[in-house]
Amino acid sequence: MSHILIIDDSPPIAQLMREMMSLIGHAGETANSGREGLERMRHQMPDLVLLDLMMPEMNGWEVYDEIRRFSRVPVIFITASDTPANRNRAAALGRATHQQRGHVDFVAPTY
Hints:
Blueprint: E1 3-7, H1 11-23, E2 27-31, H2 34-43, E3 48-52, H3 60-67, E4 75-78, H4 84-99, E5 104-107
Parallel strand pairs: 1-2, 1-3, 3-4, 4-5
Helix pairs in contact: 2-3
């Protein structure tokens, strides 16, 4: 069973993702802000982070940069902001982290 940390400022969405992870056999933990997520990671390192990009106080890009200061844990960005700029930035991070044995994915809605 993998330990997955879900960092999203919307508690209903974070809870739904946690329940979905549980249905497929993974332990999910939620954090409702970037700072809370980073604190949880410092206490228990997850196997995977699902990270919302659009959060107040500290956005997903800032959280990702801070995560990379102390961990190579895989990160999947979850966002409703499917812009070329976000896709390009995630792709660039994916190329960079692939070379450093990390991993980045980008998930956005397809309407």
